[in-house]
Amino acid sequence: MKFILLPTLICFIVSLLTTPFIKKLAINIGAVDKPNDRKVHTKIMPRLGGLVIVISFIVGIVLFLPITSDIYPILIGATIIVIVGFLDDLISLPAAVKFLGQIIAASVPVISGLTIEFITVPNGNVIEFHFLAIPITIIWIVAITNAINLIDGLDGLAAGVSSIALMTMTALAFTLNYSFAVILMGLILLGSTLGFLVYNFYPAKIFMGDIGSLFLGYMIGVVSIMGFTKSAAVFSLIIPIMILGVPIMDTTSAIIRRIIHKKSLTKPDKFHLHHCLLRLGFTHRQSVVLIYLLSGLFSLSAILFTRATIWGASILILTLLIIIELILEVTGIISENYRPILNLISNKKNYSGRTRD
């Protein structure tokens, strides 16, 4: 157990010690985040902090993970996504160029054989994807990459949510006897992210920027494929979806919201989950902690899911769907007018009141 935790500890220390130097570098080269009407912070902030996570990750890989033919494509894709993130932090790339870079990065490990080849269904049957495996896997990696990127809107939010997801994935990979490479990569990423979070939690001294959120999203997407989607367990694809429930919910809501309001899918707005919580009156710190707790709830559900019967798993999924629906309605993340369940409850209360009168 001591050896298992050593990669996390070493990467945590490397990340912790590296952050002050990267902060100075970001300021010197002009990689800073300036306040505007869409952003929450009110002063110029260095935003190259994700480079800390990348450096610590590289140290962890060199020290602890044997570089095999399966690992090389993942690292090449990671290099591409880091370059895209770095350029975006430095010169703000057009959305189309940024998206193209994500697709290229995701395609490298996928074309090399890392694919979601099948899913299992409740009766135990396996649905093979065949030639669709490659596009489905690329879409998955790009989707998770963007999900983590979009949730990076408050101090410590993306780093904290990513840490919770990595902790859960690694623990499940360990208990379910998945590949040791999956466990090591998860531990290395976890230590690297937690060390940076010390400086990134509210009030943040440095932002991770796109170099960090894109890199974390890419790696989390890849790690989930290396482990859970290769499993023959029932509902295997559901496990990473549940673990990443918060960023997936936020991204899906953003897509639906922009389609409903006929806005460009690439145009930023201030209606993400964290923005909505702030509008409800929660403080910056409270909003972050609430989303942490929600991420923890989804992660706990994923752990329970792996141990549940078919009926238990079905009830668990139904409960989570109800919770998600209530979150969407209470926060107004899709639309302030979207409140079917809350309106139904309100109408019943009003009807009961009139009946008693």
Task: Describe, in plain words, how this protein is organized in 3D.
This protein is mostly helical. The chain has one domain. The protein has helices spanning 2-29, 50-64, 71-91, 95-111, 133-150, 157-175, 180-200, 209-227, 238-243, 245-260, 273-279, 284-305, 310-331, 340-356; strands at 32-33, 45-46, 118-120, 126-128. The strands form two sheets. A two-stranded antiparallel ribbon has the order 1-2. Strands 3-4 form a two-stranded antiparallel ribbon. A hairpin with a 5-residue loop joins strand 3 and strand 4 (126-128). The longest helix is centred in the first third of the chain and has 28 residues, at 2-29. The radius of gyration is 21 Å and the shape is globular. The mean pLDDT is 87.
Average pLDDT score = 87
**Which shape, going by the Cα principal axes?**
globular
Number of domains: 1
Radius of gyration: 21 Å
For the largest beta-sheet, the strand count, sense and barrel status come to: 2 strands, antiparallel
Helix content: 55-70%
User: Which runs of at least 5 residues are low in confidence (pLDDT < 50)?
Assistant: none
* Helical/strand content category: mainly alpha
Please report the total strand number as a whole number.
4
**What's the tally of helices?**
14
Strand-residue proportion: under 5%
Provide the spatial order of strands within the biggest beta sheet.
1-2
| Helix-strand string | HEEHHHEEHHHHHHHHHH
Measured between the Cα atoms of the first and last residue, the distance is 66 Å
